[in-house]
Amino acid sequence: MRYFKRAILIASAALCFNLSAFSQDITLKANNVTVKEAMEQLKKSSGYSFVFSSADVNTKKRISISVEDAGIEEVIKQILQGQSGFSYEIQGKKIIIKKAQTGTVSSAQEGKVRGRIVDATGEPVIGATVREQGTSNGTTTDIDGNFTLDVAPNANLEVSYIGYQTQVLKAQSGKMLAVTLKEDTQLLDEVVVIGYGTTTRKDFTGSVSSMKLENSPVALVANTNALETLKGSVGGLDIGATNTAGGQPSMLVRGQNSISGNNDPLLIVDGVIFLGSLNDINPNDIATIDVLKDATSAAAYGSRSANGVIAITTKRGKSGKPVINLNMTGTMQSWHRQPEFMNGKDYLQMLHDKNGNTVESLSAQQRANYEAGHETNWLDEISRTGWLQDYQVSVSGAGEKMNYYGSYIPPDPKPGGYNLCL
């Protein structure tokens, strides 16, 4: 019984000690000191020390603190006043400051949107894209045309599918949305050029990509090569770079078909096989470019089109008064990555490291230049910022029996040329 009473007494004393340690009354007064200095004063007076990352807490901020017989939590709030974005945890005499976890949008802020997408006949649209407008948050419809997506409050949904008009609607959580997509008649009625004439996209079963240059934003970009306008705009067409001045970039339609043979696609200009280079065609004379990528091209042009076909249609005159267009382009050229060469001091140091005697390694002329302090940066002497000017003029129109389009490029600063279509 005596030992039992002694054990209870020791346990009670330990409990009282822990409680008093946690609720220790702290007095701390400081005026216009930094956060770091306040932390050091707290450590001296109470033994509490802070553990944190300098990126989470601004220790140089100046504060004034005045607490008397206060708990440790109140002191922490006073020291970290005006700072946010973190939380803290007390472990014994250690105050651990952690960066607040931002996480993702909580379920209370998110809303789950469900819906079904069908076409005009009521058939489900499989693989339609449903995206929260303005974000990358999205999903696709399943085999039944259904979708489920977690979105932020007051979000808009953007529904799109190839051959259909894109629709934007308000997201309504907790309600089954019914979306009916309408056919994009403008896209389906687009005229494409094939080997044996022209047809509309909706009636054409082959793989073809079309790009209109006439009156399009792409035409506003100054390009001296027609291929430059196609880069990144036509799926399945890989356009490489050229390492020679005036050279034509390499072209691959749906990858390389031959290891040693020619892989360039067949070029067709206004229905005629073109054996020249696209550098010879003025980009401003091009109205549309159609890229045929499957067996449809082989049916019209045979084995020569095994690597695909690029069909170019040039501009035509339109009825009305004659139209004169003048395009002027100015381009500046500079070093993309200028090589670094040794200056005179570095060159002498290289000779010294190599031969051990710098002066004897120099010729008489080099020694005279070295003694006179003459240095010439020959790269700067033979190079400068290039300035290219490009002028192009075209005349187009149409009468009762004939339409015409003509263009001309002056021979300076590059070889000139002309084009006339009647």
UniProtKB/TrEMBL annotation:
<dbReference type="InterPro" id="IPR008969">
    <property type="entry name" value="CarboxyPept-like_regulatory"/>
</dbReference>
<comment type="similarity">
    <text>Belongs to the TonB-dependent receptor family.</text>
</comment>
<dbReference type="GO" id="GO:0009279">
    <property type="term" value="C:cell outer membrane"/>
</dbReference>
<keyword id="KW-0732">Signal</keyword>
<protein>
    <submittedName>
        <fullName>SusC/RagA family TonB-linked outer membrane protein</fullName>
    </submittedName>
</protein>
<dbReference type="InterPro" id="IPR012910">
    <property type="entry name" value="Plug_dom"/>
</dbReference>
<dbReference type="InterPro" id="IPR011662">
    <property type="entry name" value="Secretin/TonB_short_N"/>
</dbReference>
<dbReference type="Pfam" id="PF07715">
    <property type="entry name" value="Plug"/>
</dbReference>
<dbReference type="InterPro" id="IPR037066">
    <property type="entry name" value="Plug_dom_sf"/>
</dbReference>
<keyword id="KW-0812">Transmembrane</keyword>
<keyword id="KW-0813">Transport</keyword>
<keyword id="KW-0472">Membrane</keyword>
<feature type="domain" description="Secretin/TonB short N-terminal">
    <location>
        <begin position="48"/>
        <end position="100"/>
    </location>
</feature>
<dbReference type="Pfam" id="PF13715">
    <property type="entry name" value="CarbopepD_reg_2"/>
</dbReference>
<feature type="signal peptide">
    <location>
        <begin position="1"/>
        <end position="23"/>
    </location>
</feature>
<keyword id="KW-1134">Transmembrane beta strand</keyword>
<keyword id="KW-0998">Cell outer membrane</keyword>
<dbReference type="InterPro" id="IPR023997">
    <property type="entry name" value="TonB-dep_OMP_SusC/RagA_CS"/>
</dbReference>
<dbReference type="InterPro" id="IPR039426">
    <property type="entry name" value="TonB-dep_rcpt-like"/>
</dbReference>
<dbReference type="Pfam" id="PF07660">
    <property type="entry name" value="STN"/>
</dbReference>
